[in-house]
């Protein structure tokens, strides 16, 4: 058997979905996914024990988000992704655009803040450290659109169209680091836009939509560039193993089509979530105003009526 630079087989049989979905765990991501599910489950259980509610929908979103990471990193999709550009692009798009959205809808930071115990006076515990991080200058920088949008774009162009990609693909730590980078870039890009968890950058809903669509044209153009290329553009995939029975250029064109399609699908999901959040925000604001009016006897309306009465008196 031939092997790549970090021990993955390169004489795989021709790709089929069934073969791609066979269990083939990457230990780093397997342990990471299990740890994420365990910690989230601990947080939910802690809230339940003290009688606090936690939306089931958030648990479902987070769980599915973790499972999407496991799907592309703990199956033979990861093996095929080392030698097929199209399969690698599926991994990239899922872990950078779909998984982050689902994870963020699970509101893990909010859960952590509610579940972690408050440290005693004068001491610092995990909850205090998390709050400090959320309010840090570092977090303000990495969640600002002036950083997130260029980073989101650079993760495509500066990676695939430079020797950096081939360097990272040459070792297992490099490949793992690249995939972690894709996940983190997706999280910091979508975090201010989704707006479920607290964070330092919290624009209005219109600005969130503008941020969402600011990066998507560059994403779509990247996919089109791969689809229309007349020669292989990424050295790592120039010579696929003969056992796969594929053409490198055809596979690259397929990768471009996948990248282009994924620039549209998550955008629609996020837009739906934003509209839903916006609607419920308006509903909550209306309820708060009604309660305030009930408490003070609607003094604002009374003041307005008094103002109209004073105008009529002046006219008379």
Task: Give the tags.
single chain, 316 residues, mainly alpha, 72% helix, globular, disordered N terminus
Give the gist of this structure.
The protein has 316 residues and is mostly helical. The chain has helices at residues 17-20, 27-49, 56-73, 76-81, 85-105, 108-115, 126-134, 137-142, 145-160, 164-169, 172-194, 205-228, 248-262, 265-296, 299-315.
Describe the structure.
With 316 residues, this protein is mainly alpha-helical. It is 72% helix and 0% strand. The model is unreliable at 1-8 (pLDDT under 50).
Layout of secondary structure:
Elements: H1 17-20, H2 27-49, H3 56-73, H4 76-81, H5 85-105, H6 108-115, H7 126-134, H8 137-142, H9 145-160, H10 164-169, H11 172-194, H12 205-228, H13 248-262, H14 265-296, H15 299-315
Helix pairs in contact: 2-3, 2-6, 3-5, 5-11, 5-13, 9-11, 9-12, 11-12, 12-13, 12-14
Largest sheet: none
Provide the β-strand percentage band.
under 5%
Regarding quaternary structure, what we see is single chain
Describe the global form.
globular
Class from helix and strand fractions: mainly alpha
Query: What's the helical proportion of residues?
Result: over 70%
């Amino acid at each position: 058997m031939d092997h790549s630079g970090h021990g993955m087989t390169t004489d795989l049989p021709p790709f089929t979905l069934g073969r791609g979905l066979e269990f083939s765990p990457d230990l780093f991501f397997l342990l990471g996914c299990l740890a994420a599910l365990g910690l989230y489950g601990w947080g939910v259980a802690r809230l339940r024990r003290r009688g606090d509610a936690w939306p089931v929908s958030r648990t479902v979103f987070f769980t599915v988000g973790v499972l999407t990471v496991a799907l592309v990193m703990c199956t033979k999709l990861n093996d095929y992704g080392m030698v097929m550009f199209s399969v690698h692009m599926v991994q990239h798009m899922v872990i950078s655009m779909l998984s982050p959205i689902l994870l963020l809808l699970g509101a893990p930071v909010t859960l952590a803040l509610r579940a972690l115990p408050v440290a005693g006076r004068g001491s610092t515990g995990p909850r205090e450290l998390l709050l400090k991080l959320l309010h840090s200058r570092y977090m303000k920088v990495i969640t600002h659109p002036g950083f997130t949008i260029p980073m989101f774009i650079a993760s495509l162009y500066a990676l695939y169209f430079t020797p950096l990609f081939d360097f990272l693909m040459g070792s297992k730590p490099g490949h793992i680091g690249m995939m972690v980078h894709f996940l983190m870039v997706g999280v910091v890009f979508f975090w201010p836009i989704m707006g479920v968890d607290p964070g330092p950058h919290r624009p209005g809903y219109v600005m969130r939509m503008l941020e969402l669509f600011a990066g998507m044209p560059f994403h779509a153009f990247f996919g089109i560039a791969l689809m229309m290329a007349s020669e292989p553009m990424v050295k790592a995939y120039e010579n696929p193993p003969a056992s796969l029975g594929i053409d490198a250029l055809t596979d690259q064109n397929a990768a471009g089509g996948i990248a282009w399609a994924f620039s549209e699908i998550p955008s629609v999901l996020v837009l739906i979530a934003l509209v839903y959040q916006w609607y419920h925000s308006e509903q909550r604001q209306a309820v708060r105003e009604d309660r305030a009016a009930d408490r003070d006897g609607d003094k604002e309306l009374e003041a307005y009526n008094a103002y109209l009465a004073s105008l009529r008196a002046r006219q008379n």
